[in-house]
What we know:
Elements: H1 9-39, H2 44-69, H3 74-95, H4 99-127, H5 133-166, H6 175-183, H7 185-192, H8 197-236
Amino acid sequence: MDLSLFRNKTFSGSVTINLMSLAFMIGFVFFATQLLQIVLGMSPLNASLALIPGQLMAIVVGILIVPVAQRVSVNVLIPILLAFTAGAFLLVASLGSSLTVIVVAFALLNIGVGAIATVSNDVILSAAPANKAGAASAISETAYEVGVVLGTTVLGGLVTAYYRGTLHLPDFLSPMQMQLASETLAGAHAISATLAHDQASEVMGNAIQAFVGGTQLMAWATFSLAVLAIVIARRTLKGQETAPV
């Protein structure tokens, strides 16, 4: 890894935005899949179908953004795209976790992240010297991988930490059942399947309340990080233009 590339603020800013946008996407998927399948009771297939509109938006926007990026400076374009990402988490934080909210928020998120992936990669390569294009590309790919890890560990960990810290379990559960139910929402769901209807409803009601609270906390935190990313883009990409694609 050629660390000298990070002396270029445009390169550093673009890599940082790449990393953050991937973290936002993975963090969203972390809680959205559990909300759809466990909280809303959807099958894995139906939960996947609910996320298809967002994936389609990423494909369409990734293509349509190319001519736009040739005409609009990236210090304007990328903050606008990050605003879509921020809006997705603001929607979840303020309106909750209904099916409609999740579908719309995921579509907004994919508009932002899908286009950023296209534009920022071009900026990263354009900011690096031609003889270091391979190193720049490798760093960009590494940023993607780090973003995936951070999305799971940091954003997903925030949801899990809130869940474990606020979950109240009834006394009729055995110590082993309490341990499993307190680890994850899926654990509570598995335990509830072994209980009588009233007991299962109480356990799942408490678990869902704790998990949804965690998703809203994470959504507010990620919204703040997206705003920070907008500031980074405005400052580091100032005056930069993408190369013709």
